[in-house]
What does this fold into?
Amino acid sequence: MVVCPAYNEEESVGAVVAELLAALPGVEVVVVDDGSTDRTADRAAAAGARVLRLPFNMGPGAAVRTGLVLGVRQGVDAVVQCDADGQHPAAAVPDLVARLSEADLVIGARWAGEGTYQARGPRRWAMWVLAAVMSSLHSTRLTDVTSGFRAFGPRAQAVLAREMPPEYLGDTLDALVIARSSRLRVVQVPVAMRARSTGVASHRPLRSALFLARSCLLLLLSLSRLLRPRGTAA
Amino acid sequence: MSVGWVGGLAAASVLVVVARLVLRGRLNVKYAALWLSVVLGVALLGLVPGLLVWSSDLLGFELPANFLFSTGLLLLLLVGINLSVAVTALEAKVQRLAEEVALLREQEGRRDGTG
It folds into this structure.
C-alpha cells in the first residue's frame, strides 16, 4: 500500500497517482487529503487512488498516521509513504519495500550518493547535525532524516499509527526517536529524488534558520523520550 | 479593614461569575472546582487578615503583599500549565476522531459506489 499525504497539491497529485499505479501494478494507492481547499481529493480519485479526506488540516504527520491506521486494519506487510508533489520516484518503491526484510522502517534518502538535490546554509548544517544524532541513535548510517519517502513494516505501522506526531518535523525527527524508544530497526536506501514538480521548497535563509532552531528544539524535547524507554513493540 | 472588604468583594464576584458559567453549562464542574477553591482562599485571606500576616511570617516574607503576589503568580502559572495539558489531550482526541471520520467517510463512499 502506498500512502500519499496531500495538502493542496491539485497540480501534481494526479500525475503522482498515475505514475505509482503504472509503476506498481496491483498495489493500492491511498491519497490522504489533509483538509485541502482545492481539488486535490477529486484529482486523486480521478487518477484512480483511494482517497481519505481529513475534515480539516492537521499536518503531514496526521495524514500519514491515518494511512498507517488503514494499513494496520488491513494487515498489509508494507505501507510506503510518498509525497504528492512528485519528488519521490515511484520506481524506487520496490527498493524500499525490499529492505523491510531486515528492518521495520526504511528511509529513502537523498544525499546518499544518488541524485543531485542540495541544501545550503543553516538548513544544511541542521540536516547534518540531525543526521549525525539519528545515525548514532540507530547505530546505522542515516543521511536524510527528514525524508518523507519511507516504508513502514508491520511493527513500525503499529507503533506509529498510535504515536506519529502530527506537526511538520515531528513526523520525521520525532518519529525516528519514537522508533528508537520502541526498538524498531531503521535503515536507509539511497534514492535519486527529483525537483518538486510544483510548489516551493523552503530555501530562503530566514526559513532555514527557523528550521534549524525548530529542529534543534524538537530534537532536545524528543530525546527526553529515551529517558523512559519502553519495551519492544508488540 | 478596607483591604478585607476588597478581597471579600472580589471573591464574591468571582463566585457569582463561576456559578453563572456552571449553571449555563459553559464551565465543567472540574474547572469550576478549581476556581471555587481559589475563591475560597481569597475570601479566607480577606476575612481573616491575620492569616496572611501569620503565614508570610512563617515562610520568611518581609511583606505579606509579596507573599500574596508570589503565591498568586505561582498558582496562575500552574493553572496555565494545567490548561495546556488539557488542550494537548483534546487535540490528540480531535486528531483520532478526524482520522476515524476520514476512514468512515471513505468506507461509506465505497459502499454507496460513489467513491
Summary: Chain A touches chain B through 17 residues (CB under 8 Å).
